[in-house]
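EI: anyone free to look at a 370-residue chain?
SC: sure, send it
EI:
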Amino acid sequence: MNQISSKETVKSSRLISLDAFRGFTMFLLIAEFAGLFHYFTDPYFKGTLVSFLGEQLDHHPWHGLHFWDLVQPYFMFIVGVAIPFSEKNRLKKGSSDKEVRIHAIKRSAILLFLGWALYCIDPGRIVFRFQNVLAQLSVTYLIAFLLRNKSIKLQFIVSLLFILTSEILYRTFPVAGFNQPFVPDHNFGAYIDMLISGELSGGHWVSFNAIPTTAHTIWGVMTGKLLLSGKPKKQILKILITSGITGLILGYGLNPITPIIKRISTSSFVFVSGGWALLTFALFYWIIDMKEYRNWAKFAIIIGMNPLFIYLFAHVGGGKFIKHIIEPFTFGLFDRFGDLTANIITGSITWFLLWYITYWLYKHKIFIRI
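SC: here you go
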């Protein structure tokens, strides 16, 4: 990992909407480690807006789509958008094409190692599982990077081939017990996990998701290229919106044939989540880079400058550690209003303090990257 010294500053040429979108996504991701959202589904809130939010801020159990199912596709798309910008900056600073390529390969290897290592922490032993966002991203990032300078047409065709290949494998896999494409733990993806690790994930997640969702990162690269194309901003926005709506039409249209299932990243899910990623980014782009309403986004931009650090910190126990420290105080002050109230306040403060760590890093101009 490289640490940028406090003497360096964030370049004004950065795409602010991308930083804000990244920060918004990471802010949601670390909320999981603050232990907050699941309290929204408490029976006390049944039938209220809070209960609806609690449902949307959790993964759909199988066939269907919740807002929370979009968070990982958002991040994989964002990484793709950043690839052309990152390459341009490295070349501008004097790096050769070979050096850029070697850096990308090393980055992919580090992401894979970190994603795998996170699964070894809880059991305290070596296990071979690759379902989390870092491990998945190591694959999608490298493929998208290798395609970055190919034509937009070829990139799009390759992305469709990844989706089509996954669809065919799930529907035609002949091994008994794993030949039911859309049944939890009885599909092709589950079989691959049994080969890799000898066990299923426990939540119906599969490592093979990295193949169809490579499309998200490739579409991100295509978007990055569009943003650097010099086209007028209105035309760029129109293309983003049109592409996003097309993804939604394809995804929801396929749903009766191929169900939208996040946990095995079906083709319909890839299209619909990719469409939402494009439309959400278009919204950020319109508000921040076109209308230039930027002050409100600083809260998100701050965490977006250290996404990998705060994700790892929260994941390895940082969130639990902070929660453990503040819990005696929040419960001491608020348990008179009930455990539910005290838990929500505890989770909210933990979430804020995780953000505040990134603020401290931002304030001291420390940006930890690989």
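EI: The radius of gyration is 21 Å.
SC: 👍
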